[in-house]
Specification:
21 strands; seven-stranded mixed beta sheet; 2 domains; Aldehyde Dehydrogenase, Chain A, domain 1; five-stranded parallel beta sheet; 15 helices; Aldehyde Dehydrogenase, Chain A, domain 2; alpha/beta
Length: 481
């Protein structure tokens, strides 16, 4: 059985305790990917030491030189795209096409931020004093802890890591325990690209040990986290005791509104892509479809047929359109919510059961109709392929139901009415707004982040907005008169 190691201070090392954790393929539980270190608190402290020691040299390197390393990492991902996509599918379960798209996105993020090395700078401001130069400069924040989820095990680490590195920070990277293999492959690419020792450190292990040690450390300048609300709130509370800067992305319960003028076929395709793509395991996934009454019956029938026709199976097999849940726990969560929906009185139209594929955590694409806004399946994030149809009288009613929730990450509308589309864009309470597109899918050059409990409502991710989290601003006055 293959054994993999942590990467600390430029060396691949085992846990100081010798303890390991096993990683299996969710599509075939007999397939053991390997064993990975269960890091101790001492291991994490060593990683923080290494990142702090490497910080001055990396922060003082010219930004274009840092960008050249990210550009090489981008080229390495491009050259290995099929290899990495197969590994990602084997570890996380998404289809090969979805995995390849994720690897290519990571490639492009590295390329984008490599260019930021040539654009990083401050401002020259008009002074109110004669003979004075007044300007600002951006400096690295310091050592950044990245705590990342299992659903995008390469793309999300890269969209945090790339801006952290280009702006001169060093990193301690804790991936989700379900996906350590993808993290190892990503760090290997950065090492091959020439990243200096200590600039990125990888520690695998439990959130209780690794995550808590990182978040509670006074030597960590910033924490960027993507995951559940409960864990994110805990991170925020711990980090604030040291005034550590925090960036949180904590999920969503994302609506797609379908108005009666919409093309039903197009609306169904958008709902299927948003709700069943990636097995519904995306923070931006469509879990509520709010349909105007005039189109509701036709939409429900068409979505039911589409769900029943999706091919579920091992993502490495040809023709498979939806892979398994990532773990036995997630599969059980999906099935538990199906039971809750039925108990609450929603009408099950399709799916709702464990799929028949042997040896994997497969669940059927599931559709509920006549879901009421107060039901748990309409309020709580399931993180699986479960879509609830909510009926609305008109756009005002649909917006009220869409906004009547504690999340505000992504939302979309399907309509041919331009006026109503812009009403939606102006009135929806979500950080990402899509018109005639799925709730999933993001442009890497655009700011990303949600409202309400979907984020800490502080710093956006991606694009040039990332500079706000990963740098601090210094204002300089130069008297020369």
């Amino acid at each position: 059985m293959p054994h993999f190691k942590n990467y600390i201070a430029g060396e691949w090392v085992d846990s100081s305790s010798g303890e390991t954790m096993e990683n299996r393929n969710p599509a075939d539980t007999d397939d053991v990917i390997g064993t990975f270190p269960a890091a101790t608190k001492a291991d994490v402290e060593r990683a923080i030491d290494a990142a702090n020691e490497a910080l001055p040299g990396w922060a003082n390197m010219p930004p274009p030189a840092r960008g050249a390393i990210l550009d090489k990492a981008s080229a390495i991902l491009d050259a290995r795209q099929d290899e990495l996509a197969r590994a990602l599918t084997r570890e996380e379960g998404k289809t090969f096409a979805e995995a390849k798209g994720e690897v290519l996105r990571a490639r492009d993020i590295f390329k984008y931020y490599a260019g930021e090395g040539w654009r990083m700078g401050g401002q020259v401001l008009p002074s109110n004093i004669t003979g004075e130069l007044l300007y600002t400069r951006r400096e690295a924040l310091g050592v950044i802890a990245l705590v990342t989820p299992w659903n995008f095990p390469i793309a999300i680490p890269v969209w945090k890591m790339a801006p952290a590195l280009i702006y001169g920070n060093t990193v301690v990277f804790k991936p989700a325990s379900l996906v350590p293999y993808s993290a190892v492959l990503l760090v290997e690419a950065l090492v091959e690209a020439g990243l200096p020792k200590g600039v990125v450190n990888l520690v695998t292990g439990s959130g209780r040990t690794v995550g808590d040690t990182l978040v509670g450390s006074k030597r960590i300048a910033g924490v960027s986290f993507t995951g559940s609300v409960s864990v994110g709130m805990g991170i925020y509370e711990k980090a604030m005791k040291n005034l550590t800067r925090v960036q949180l992305e904590m999920g969503g319960k994302n609506p797609t509104i379908v108005l009666k003028d919409a093309d039903i076929s197009k609306a169904v395709n958008i709902a299927v892509a948003g709700g069943f793509g990636l097995t519904g395991q995306a923070c931006t996934a469509t879990s509520r479809v709010i349909v105007e009454e005039g189109a509701a019956d036709a939409f429900a029938a068409a979505l039911t047929e589409a769900a029943r026709n999706l091919k579920v199976g091992n993502g490495l097999e040809s023709g498979v359109q939806m892979g398994p849940a990532v773990s036995e726990d997630q599969l059980q969560t999906d099935l538990d919510y199906v039971a809750v929906g039925q108990q609450e009185g929603a009408k099950l139209l399709a799916g709702g059961e464990q799929a028949g594929a042997n040896g994997g955590y497969y669940v059927q694409p599931t559709v509920f109709d006549h879901v009421e806004p107060q039901m748990r399946i309409a309020q709580e994030e399931i993180f699986g392929p479960v879509i609830g149809i909510i009926r609305a009288r008109n756009l005002d009613d649909a917006l009220e139901k869409a906004n009547g929730i504690g999340f505000g990450l992504s939302a979309s509308i399907v309509t041919n009415d331009l006026q109503q589309a812009f009403q939606f864009a102006n009135r929806i309470e979500a950080g990402v707004v899509k018109i005639n597109e799925p709730t999933t899918g993001l442009a890497l050059q655009a700011p990303f982040g949600g409202f309400k409990n979907s984020s800490a409502n502080t710093f956006k991710e991606q694009g040039q907005a990332a500079i706000e989290f990963y740098t601090r601003t210094k204002t300089v006055y130069v008297g020369h008169g």
